[in-house]
Amino acid sequence: MSAVKSFKAVIPAAGLGTRFLPATKAMPKEMLPVVDKPAIQYVVEEAVQAGIDDVLIIIGRNKNNLSNHFDSVPELELNLLKKGDREKLEKVQRSTDLADIHFVRQGEPKGLGHAVLRARAHVGDHPFAVLLGDDLIDERDELLTTMLALHERTGAAVIALMEVDPDHIHMYGAAAVEPTETDGIVKVTGLVEKPKAEDAPSNLAVIGRYVLAPTVFDILERTEPGKGGEIQLTDALQELAAHPEGPGVYGVVFRGRRYDTGDRVDYIKAIVQIAVDRDDLGPDLRPWFKEFAAGL
């Protein structure tokens, strides 16, 4: 796909990753491997597959491994070339050649809204996609391209939604919605961050993909800290949804394969799901898993 010149991608990666300690004591959680690639590479590849070739990663302290991963490593590449191991050489070089990747520090982790605000100077007047590394979207399923096209058509903010068990909605932002003429696309009339099940407006949860116009930066500038004492992107989106004269907020309901790497159990499930689907690993893993499960 040719590059979508008008869009940029922003990937917040400044979180502390405390749920994965001690592994994340000296390594960013975004660098934890999902099979044989760090989680953040899947996210960058998703942006590139949607046609975006300008990517900004928001980092915090002790995050140098992230920039190192997307840099070239001449010594390693020369060693692989001498060995004639072109397959591994291509894998190493792929992360370097993926996109035009930039980095900016967040400083203090003051919430997702604050992280997005740190992208203002780089994004400028361009519309942009925000991709969170906790949610990996299967490359075989379309989501981001649909969101980009919807933003281009409407000028609205676009968020990704997914139906979840109502008992789990307290773990997400929940959306109040109205149907549109297009199946799978809804008009968002309100958002609630991590509501109790009885207070949730629906079981449609906000997952980690957003497409935004640069006007959101002005809203984030004046957004007061919300839940958890952090500047919440949800609060800015709520203001956009409530604006009677603006383009509003739309949601794309995703029904494809999503891998949650946000906690330890789901991270392990994500690795298993991705590995068993791979041509090079699945044939050996599937029968082993059946034997293993039978013995539990």
Automatic annotation (TrEMBL):
**Any idea where the Nucleotidyl transferase domain is?**
8-274
EC numbers for this chain: 2.7.7.9
* A GO MF term: UTP:glucose-1-phosphate uridylyltransferase activity
InterPro entries reported for this sequence: GalU_uridylyltTrfase_bac/arc, NTP_transferase_dom, Nucleotide-diphossugar_trans
Q: Which UniProt keywords apply?
A: Nucleotidyltransferase, Transferase
Asked if the keyword Nucleotidyltransferase belongs to this entry, the reply reads yes
Task: Tell me which Pfam families the record gives.
Answer: NTP_transferase (PF00483)
Q: What catalytic activity does the UniProt entry give for this protein? A: alpha-D-glucose 1-phosphate + UTP + H(+) = UDP-alpha-D-glucose + diphosphate
Source domain of life is Bacteria
| Statement: the UniProt record of this protein carries the keyword Nucleotidyltransferase | yes
**Alphabetized NCBIfam families for the sequence:** galU
Instruction: Tell me its family.
Output: Belongs to the UDPGP type 2 family.
Q: What is this protein called?
A: UTP--glucose-1-phosphate uridylyltransferase
What is the species of this protein? Microbacterium fluvii
